[in-house]
Description:
The chain has six helices and 23 strands. The protein is elongated, with a radius of gyration of 25 Å. The protein is of the alpha+beta class. Helix content is 17%, strand content 45%.
Amino acid sequence: MRLSVLQEKLAKGLSIVSRAVENRPTLPVLGNVLLATEDARLRLSATNLELSITTWIGAKVERDGAITLPARTLVDLVNNLSNDRVDLTLDPATQTVNVRCGATTSNIKGIDAAEFPVIPLGGDADVVVPGKVLKEMINQTVFAAAKEDNRPILTGVYVQLDGNVMTMAAADGYRLAVRTTEIEQHFARPVEMVVPARALSEIGRIIGDEDDVVTITLPTDRDIVLFHLKQTDVATQLLEGKFPDFSAIIPRSYVTSTVMYTSDLLAACKRAEIFARDSAYSATIFVKPSSGPGEPGAVRIAGRSAERGDNEGLLDASVEGEALNISFNIRYLIDVLNVIDDDQIVFESNGPANPGVIRPKDRDDFVHVIMPMSLNR
């Protein structure tokens, strides 16, 4: 193998695939990145056997070949090379790659490419989603997936294809995020799968402006779903088990509905969070209806620390219904507000003992449910 590639492109490609490399791989070759020439391009692949990422970058190939190199060594080296042409030459006898860039020469010992696991590539385009939409859907759901694996199924994101609607949902027992979008394909029977949140997070991170669409190849007999971007493929093993029926916990009515500006509420929550840290991040929201015609309602967000003090923020709001006094984990509110780009949100509640609902004011494709932390009467 002998080829030349620009340092900037190689560094970017390695930053994409190296996220699939485990810190403590079970096999030495799983700590490596596969480099293989393919159609006048360089293919980079990495896998932990559950998540596989492959990306292609332009290269001038003089001699075909393949090798796996230690991911951390290669990434660190390439990131510290000058922004110039990088020449890679493989010595098959020693499985060593000579890396030359400007006045710098390095030799990296690798492992034969034949020992690298087979990476799923290609496949039919069963679903086509605009890249910008899929990225937004991922960002608006993955944060609500469970971080601990006490219930492994909750560490994934539920994906349903029904009719011409695609639904993504994530929950960790304390909150639920649901996002829908219309797709061109039509599914006469619902298709359901649970995709690891980590894999979707990587896909959301990789999707760029050049990815007009993302095509999805649905699982067959191997329970692997493939996401195809313009220059990158991501394959992931699905989670086994049945995702809880989340539709039943989304309230269908409310006694208090409040419209607020997203940025104002987010800023108030961030200030309250500074003091709420000492009380398990519990902060209180006080909703006060209008006191008379033409008068705005008000929302007060309070965070308190017995040792460090307190903070209260007062916001004008349009309030419909009853007054409300309810406590939430303020970090959960910050998480959801961070992924809503709309100017205004609607906050709905059936009282302090019931979950709160947050949704964009002028859209019905996203809903977020948060359980209260304690009763405040």
